[in-house]
Amino acid sequence: MNSLAILLVLVAAVAADKIPDFVVPGQCPAVYESKLWAEQVPKHANYAGVWYEFALTNNPYQLINKCVRNEYFFDGNQFEVKSTGLNGYGKLVKRNGRVYPNPFGEPHLTIDYENSFAAPYVILDTDYSNFACLYSCMSFNNLYYSDFAFIFSRSPSLDDKFVKHCEAVFRNLKVDTSRFQQTVQGYSCDYDAQKYL
């Protein structure tokens, strides 16, 4: 589903007074995207590699629920992403996607997975070797918005100081950090098997 299609679905839902619970009144928070973009573009190659999903806010488009492992391959302009993990039924799942510069020239990346729709991908903060705080927000007619937040880690666990750092970054945007749910990771996840799905 592309961005226009999801927008039409949401507009129809709003018009029918059946607003999905992930669409709320208001506007996306202001993010200094231009500053972040200028700092991050020269370092995009450092973002490549494996990232584990440590925590996320409710996201109906996230089809992998546990043991989420994302591998980013950078070609000098964009990232190819291979995501693996377990769905809600415990079945191994693999999804392919791309993360690329916004095609309309906005100062952030765009994430686009198969069988989904393209969405903003803003790296709010990262040290490239331990953590990444990610945010995606879409505004609908300046009346409603939908946002999704993630905390990524380079390993299946994440030191508490980095978790607290990302939480502070999100609180600065007025994102309620109690919305975060920790992703199941650890010894119950067979990462080697996932890599070869």
What does it look like?
The chain has 197 residues and is α+β, with helices and mostly antiparallel strands. The chain has five helices and ten strands; from the N terminus they run H-E-H-H-E-E-E-E-E-E-E-E-H-E-H. The chain has helices at 3-15, 33-40, 44-47, 160-172, 191-195, and strands at 24-25, 49-56, 66-74, 79-86, 92-101, 109-113, 119-126, 131-140, 144-153, 181-182. It has an eight-stranded antiparallel β-barrel with strand order 2-3-4-5-6-7-8-9. It is globular, with a radius of gyration of 16 Å. Residues 1-10 have low confidence and may be disordered.
Quick rundown:
An eight-stranded antiparallel barrel has the order 2-3-4-5-6-7-8-9.
Key terms:
globular; 197 residues; 8-stranded antiparallel beta barrel; 10 strands; alpha+beta
Question: What oligomeric assembly is this protein in?
Answer: single chain
Which structural class should the secondary elements be placed in? alpha+beta
Helix fraction?
10-25%
**Helix and strand run:** HEHHEEEEEEEEHEH
Question: Helix and strand layout, with pairings?
Answer:
Layout: H1 3-15, E1 24-25, H2 33-40, H3 44-47, E2 49-56, E3 66-74, E4 79-86, E5 92-101, E6 109-113, E7 119-126, E8 131-140, E9 144-153, H4 160-172, E10 181-182, H5 191-195
Antiparallel strand pairs: 1-9, 2-3, 2-9, 2-10, 3-4, 4-5, 5-6, 6-7, 7-8, 8-9
